[in-house]
């Protein structure tokens, strides 16, 4: 039996007019992230469950709370002997900042589990649970994990629906302030797939706020998130973004991330008339770059910035022994093919196509050849 759904309490209150619901009261100094987490969670709880007599929740700015037996604990529930008197819950939240630094967004859910544990005692009290004290504690722990997981799943599904819907509509219109606020919140959470999707959604946006979110994502722990963020920043015309991309191109620990930053840097340099400076920067970077992926991207961007000799380096690299490098060369050529170089590129790629064994490389080569045949050349953005 789900103790939260039990209605044993109905007979208690049918002839009494009592205040209902779940209320939050915060001590001063409680972190705003945690306050928001509690408020959103309690809003969801109210939509899912009935609280037949009001239960205030006091979120205390202490690391632990002294229980009735003198023990210091993370949460307590007090249920009066008189069922018409309002019970209450206390949750200790004084060490949230330390927990958040260690656990990130998961720290919020840890406190939600504590709250839910104590609210389970509320429903045990309401429904005259006959479990032993040990049984009540065990039920509260299991129930708290289950309900918080339901909430997490519901939130994830809601975010997915929002992001996928926005991904489609953002191609036709600008993102509004309410939507950008939601994107900002989701971008600060832990889900990698959501952050990747956010970077793609923001690629075409012109809002100033989008650059702040994307710059934040370029510092993410996940390298794919950083790559997607760099790629999305290629549409920027900001000096701040230009300088940030230089930093990433020089110092990121992953070669593919540096490569994405290099390509975006070339695009931004053109937008803000920094072609000469970017050319000098990339030539210096080339002297110390060790990643073949990033080196290929440097050659491609230097060619796009007017240094024509680098095309021959790219075309020679199409015969690399590594399929990943051959694939990256083909991807770069897709972005730089034009009326002047198309015959040279076509000849080299057709020759390579005849002996290529990798399906991925073949597909990339055929995309370039189709581009040449269609004479609808891609812009400089070579990702």
In short:
This protein has 383 residues and is α/β, with parallel strands linked by helices.
Describe the 3D structure:
By secondary structure, this protein is an alpha/beta fold. It has three domains: 10-154, Collagenase (Catalytic Domain), CATH 3.40.390; 178-307, Leucine-rich Repeat Variant, CATH 1.25.10.10; 317-383. Helices cover 62% and strands 6% of the residues. It has 17 helices and six strands. Helix 2 links the parallel strand 1 and strand 2. The longest helix has 37 residues, at 133-169. It is elongated, with a radius of gyration of 29 Å. It starts with 9 loop residues before the first helix and ends in a 9-residue tail after the last helix. The model has no long low-confidence stretch (mean pLDDT 92).
SSE topology sketch:
Layout: H1 10-13, E1 22-26, H2 32-48, E2 55-60, E3 65-66, E4 72-73, E5 75-78, E6 88-92, H3 96-103, H4 106-126, H5 133-169, H6 177-187, H7 192-201, H8 208-217, H9 223-232, H10 239-251, H11 255-271, H12 275-288, H13 292-304, H14 310-317, H15 323-336, H16 342-355, H17 359-374
Parallel strand pairs: 1-2, 2-6
Antiparallel strand pairs: 3-4, 5-6
Helix pairs in contact: 2-4, 3-4, 4-5, 5-7, 6-8, 7-9, 9-11, 10-11, 11-12, 11-13, 12-13, 13-14, 13-15, 15-17, 16-17
